[in-house]
Amino acid sequence: MLSAGSVRNSEAGFTLLEMMVVLAILALALTVVPVHLMNATGGQALKSDVRMLISALNYARTKAISSNMPVALALDRENMRLTINGAQQIGSLSKTTTLDIAGQSPQVGTPTIVRFYPEGGSSGGELFLSYERDEYRVSVNWLTGAVSSIRK
How far apart are the first and last CA of the chain? Predict the structure, then answer.
């Protein structure tokens, strides 16, 4: 036999305390998650920019070899644009990404140029793309024109 205090009503809902705990957890999640999503967006833009730069460098190398003429890839740090021979825009980088070139100080209005030659070689160099604490080094081999990247 059950006592009157031990019988539980099957239509009972959530208590006020349970609802308050759930709302507190939701409020905490809504304050933390957007901050992480914004940081993830910048990190994704950096990865996309690295892929874009590598593709542009490989395209310029392939174009130089196939056309049997030198090709210059210009990197405009001010507008974050990538152009071939100063005329054909082939891409742009995110404004959140920082672009640095090894051995060069930033000069306003002067694009950095990586040249590729018909025999496959290049002027070479190292480019650094970063966002906050994330950084990638993109290297162009002067002898072979091969492009490689590494996350630092």
Answer: 71
